[in-house]
Amino acid sequence: MAAPGARAAVTGLEDAAAARLAISPEALERARARRREGGTLAEALADLGAADSGAFTRALAD
């Protein structure tokens, strides 16, 4: 179990979803670094303008 406040690493599933949406690895890393506590990677990508949060969430589900 991760320590409180620790950020989860980008998973293979997130990598695959990002690839389906043509999100660059660099944008994915920037979003991961900017993810707010309690926030999702989808929200961070949307904040950066890299992807719509709904589209990223759907890509994760596919």
Description:
The protein has one domain (12-61). It is globular, with a radius of gyration of 11 Å. The chain has four helices and no strands. It is 58% helix and 0% strand. It has helices at 12-20, 25-34, 41-48, 53-61.
Note the topology.
Layout: H1 12-20, H2 25-34, H3 41-48, H4 53-61
Helix pairs in contact: 1-4, 2-3, 3-4
Low-confidence stretches: 1-7
Oligomer: single chain
Mean pLDDT: 85
Q: How many DSSP E strands?
A: 0
Radius of gyration: 11 Å
User: What is the overall number of helices?
Assistant: 4
Distance between the termini: 27 Å
SS-based structural class?
mainly alpha
Order of helices and strands: HHHH
Q: What is the 3D form? A: globular
**Percent range for helical residues?**
55-70%
Q: Quick one: biggest sheet?
A: none
Strand content: under 5%
Number of domain modules: 1
